[in-house]
Design a protein that fits this description.
294 residues, alpha/beta, 10 strands
Length: 294
Amino acid sequence: MKKPVFTGSGVALVTPFTRDGIDYKKLAALCEFHIEHQTDAIVVAGTTGEASTMPDDEHISSIRCAVEAVAGRIPVVAGVGSNDTGHAVRLSKMAAESGADALLHVTPYYNKTSQDGLYRHFSIIADAVDLPIILYNIPARTALNIDPPTMQRLSRIDNIVAVKECRIDQVAETAYLCGDNLHQYTGEDALVLPMMSYGGRGVISVAANIVPQTMHDMVARYLAGDTAGAARLQIELVPLIKALFSDVNPMPIKAAMNMMGMEVGACRLPLCEMSEQGLAALQKALGQYGLIPS
């Protein structure tokens, strides 16, 4: 059985931007906030962190900042995926040198590939570093799925240990084919309990940016046998999660954090501000959940 990188709620951390670049002081403060509220891992420079807008030096400096702020208290998972295998290898090596505990690798996007190409892509990356790797399967963004038989092939590679899975319909087949050789985390905040029911290890969560304790508690209660309590937390989150995914991530979560006074700045283009209608609905959901005055 492979050792999981973490069990519980890993936050898909936003990157706080100013007009001049990353607000590293704020990034460090966000890491501290998550440790205080029992987040189980920091996932930095992923989709929610807008890594696709960062040049390599900024990308790696954001990882280094998180590593230094966390100081070994919980795992730091670095998003270093690319649709260029060579680039993904270079980013992986730099993240390892920066002290990351694990790597998150999204499937190649835009140019896409075959299932055999996926295997070659990830196996070359895994061979280049010693860190544990979490695959990231999100076909809605990449137009490419890692099929369960390919998951099985990849799970035989020692340091490919997990997948952040956004297709709940194939979780059972992956579990059947891979067993304990590939741990599964959901990438969908609305589907934490279904993933746990299949033996999942938890969630890599957008909502955890604003409700970290709730996301941690949901997984912890499920694992402790309090499935009813875990279900209650999942159900209570429905309006909030709907609002947080009513527009392109991370536009709503950054807007929500700014409404809450967390001052994380705007998204970088091509992501932009939400519509006035969307902001009003988000504000209402935050108020209903008690995160801002209603």
